[in-house]
Design goal:
- By secondary structure, the protein is an alpha/beta fold.
- It has 2 domains: 64 residues, Helicase, Ruva Protein, domain 3 (Orthogonal Bundle), CATH 1.10.8; 202 residues, Rossmann fold (3-Layer(aba) Sandwich), CATH 3.40.50.150.
- Helices cover 36% and strands 19% of the residues.
- The model has no long low-confidence stretch (mean pLDDT 93).
Length: 294
């Protein structure tokens, strides 16, 4: 796969690694080769070029070869690095959780807008299906007055989420609970915001997903029945019981689900509409609970 002679200089090794990744069909071969080597050596990418005559030890070279081979087999780069950047935060990422994606940053912005309109008043937030804790931790970091309840059915995901809360100093304001979406609807409370990036991939879409996703990311965090709505449907129907008057529910959906999701029964909630991601695809749906029940 890649020559790993201990006497190879770092620039020469990067050339070989990038060539191996490019041959495997990785579009961003060179930067990924750099990220992996920088992570292995515990330095920033630019530092790889500060010592052009540096050579790896035999142990380092062997480890690097393993990383390149795993990436060539389409194991996600973020799992190999152990982190991903999200909304300005560096989050721990493990195979127990989905890799946080840029699309979800815009979902966070929707929730932040609700909290900021409250002008610093203490607010309760519910994050259903927290995964890595990307949404919950970001909201806690950005809004010091917020208190977040974050649920997930996966104990492995909750371990990762707790670690991210600890790393960013918000463990005292994020409470994690092992719960599926149905159980989350029974948690009561009066939340100013309920937010969720739930599973929304339909069974028929599974074979079409990229290899990195299909073969490596947790299926339970992606698949949602024949139509992709098995989790969303009851969550939307029950959200009114979780929200305080004037509270809002925001969720991320599949790019083709906007019309269907916006027409699902939502109790007393008022639909706010379907909003696009940066690519112009309907990706976010919101509802608001009236200030007064009729």
């Amino acid at each position: 796969m890649i020559g790993v002679a201990a006497d190879a200089t770092v620039p020469a090794l990067l050339e070989r690694a990038a060539a191996a990744l490019e041959e495997a069909g990785i579009e961003t071969a060179r930067p990924e080769a750099e990220w992996l080597l920088a992570g292995l050596l515990g330095v920033e990418r630019f530092a790889l070029y500060l010592e052009p005559t540096r050579r790896l030890t035999a142990t380092e070279a062997a480890h690097y070869r393993e990383l390149i081979e795993r990436r060539a087999r389409r194991e996600p780069l973020q799992y190999l690095l152990g982190w991903e950047d999200f909304h300005g935060l560096r989050l721990a990422v493990t195979p127990d959780v989905l890799v946080p994606r840029p699309e979800t940053e815009a979902l966070v912005e929707r929730a932040l807008a609700v909290l900021r309109r409250k002008g610093g008043a203490p607010s309760l937030v519910l994050d259903v299906g927290t995964g890595s804790g990307a949404i919950a931790v970001t909201l806690a970091v950005e809004v010091p007055s917020a208190r977040i309840v974050a649920t997930d059915v996966s104990l492995g995901a909750l371990r990762t989420a707790r670690e991210n809360a600890r790393r960013h100093g918000v463990s005292d304001r994020v409470r994690f609970a092992c719960s599926d979406a149905d159980s989350a609807l029974k948690c009561g409370g009066q939340f100013a915001v309920v937010v969720s990036n739930p599973p929304y991939v339909a069974e028929g879409e599974w074979p079409l997903l990229p290899t990195e996703v299909r073969d490596h990311e947790p299926p339970g965090a992606l698949l949602a029945g024949r139509d992709g709505l098995s989790v969303l449907r009851p969550l939307i129907a029950g959200a009114a019981g979780l929200l305080s008057p004037g509270g809002e529910f925001w969720c991320e959906i599949g790019a083709s689900q906007g019309e269907t999701v916006s027409s699902l029964p939502c109790g007393s909630l008022r639909p706010l509409g379907v909003f696009p991601d940066l690519a112009g695809r309907g990706r976010y749906v919101g509802w608001k609970k009236p200030e007064r029940e009729r």
